[in-house]
Amino acid sequence: MKAVEISNGVYWVGAIDWNLRDYHGYTLPGTTYNAYLIVGEKVALIDNTYPGHEKQMIERIKSVVDPKKIDYIIMNHVEKDHSGALPMLQKMLPNVPIYCTENAVKGFGKHYDTVGWNFKTVKSLESLSLGNGKTLVFLEAPMLHWPDSMFTYLAEEKVLFPNDAFGQHIAGCERFDDELGKEESLKHAKKFFANLIVPLAPRVIKKLDEVTNLKVEIKMIAPSHGVIWRSYVGDLLGSYVSWCKGESRNKVTIVYDTMHGSTDAMAKMLAEGIMAEGVEVKVHILKDGKHEGTHRSNVVTDVLDSKAILVGSPTLQNQMYPTVADFLCYLKGVEPGKLGKKKIGCAFGSHGGHGGTIKLINAELKAAGIEVINDGYEVYYKPDDAEQKQCYEMGKEIARRVKAM
């Protein structure tokens, strides 16, 4: 297991988790737990790995330097996918100081037995010299995405270590964005943003402005998950600004489940109407919510740059279908309404009794910050030709509203 030098005296010494398929409520093709070793006159380790992956990290460190020569441990975040090796490191390096925020000290105390640990709390713009042209500058980033979060910046090499910001969940042999490719790298970054960062969008914009005002040059972004950005930094930052501002395309996302095919027929006719107006549409059937392309995490990724979302469900025991309720619960947590521009939406569905699911769906859409544009459309049992035509016309009307936004 070898380290990868990413800049002068800076090494990736993380771990690859090839098997992880579900994390933070969304599907992923594995991930990496990125840790970084910086070698000056002194040696610093930034972040570490999830429990059970310590050996990978230690072996990579050994390919550069004896792990016992580490002088400082920098912790940008408490969560265990960043700090899981800390107990092992403390046994190996009992007196080595741990640099982190004051909130992080409290957080570590709730995760581990930290009695006797040598914490050094830092504030924004405080620095730590490693000698030999290596200076670390700390920038507190509370609620990006936990209260304890911070960024670390290697001034001379112009490398930003932003923890979870700008990350992607992907496992592979590629360590850099240009090795994976711009389109693929941004695709995974978009999914990460859509599922984890959307609720934090106002804070992200504020932090980006803060970094800009400091006139800090960033040549490389080394996040805690996924590939390291060295070739497409500008594209990444531009995408983050666009996503944070809620900039969307003329695009509609339709998401639904069906019991006997009635809601499915409605969804397809809605899509036909939308396409007839020249508007892009993505159609997702939830089913059991586990298969690639139908999981809620893939749906919210499409919602991110859509101007409208249509949610459909049959009525089951006077309630939404369970998969639809699950999706809407997840959507409320993502909070797309916190983005800079509004998204519109409404409900559709079928029933064999009293109905009423569309009212429940519309209420959940409102709770997620979506502007509900009508009362929705509900049919009794299977939609007949006239009702399917109504779905088609409803799709056209929604598309026209999207184009006017």
TrEMBL record:
Pfam families, per database record: Flavodoxin_1 (PF00258), ODP (PF19583)
Name the PROSITE patterns for this protein: FLAVODOXIN (PS00201), FLAVODOXIN_LIKE (PS50902)
- SUPFAM superfamilies the record matches: Flavoproteins, Metallo-hydrolase/oxidoreductase
What GO annotations for molecular function exist for this entry?
A: electron transfer activity; FMN binding; metal ion binding; oxidoreductase activity
Enzyme Commission number, as recorded: 1.-.-.-
Q: Do you know which InterPro entries this protein is assigned to? A: Flavodoxin/NO_synth (IPR008254), Flavodoxin_CS (IPR001226), Flavoprotein-like_sf (IPR029039), Metallo-B-lactamas (IPR001279), ODP_dom (IPR045761), RibonucZ/Hydroxyglut_hydro (IPR036866), Rubredoxin-O_OxRdtase (IPR016440)
Enzyme class label: oxidoreductase
Q: Which UniProt keywords apply?
A: Oxidoreductase
- Which residues does the UniProt record annotate as the domain Flavodoxin-like? 252-399
Listed SMART domains = Lactamase_B
The entry's protein name is F420H2 oxidase
Lineage start: Archaea, Methanobacteriati, Methanobacteriota, Stenosarchaea group, Methanomicrobia
Q: Which gene encodes it?
A: fprA-3
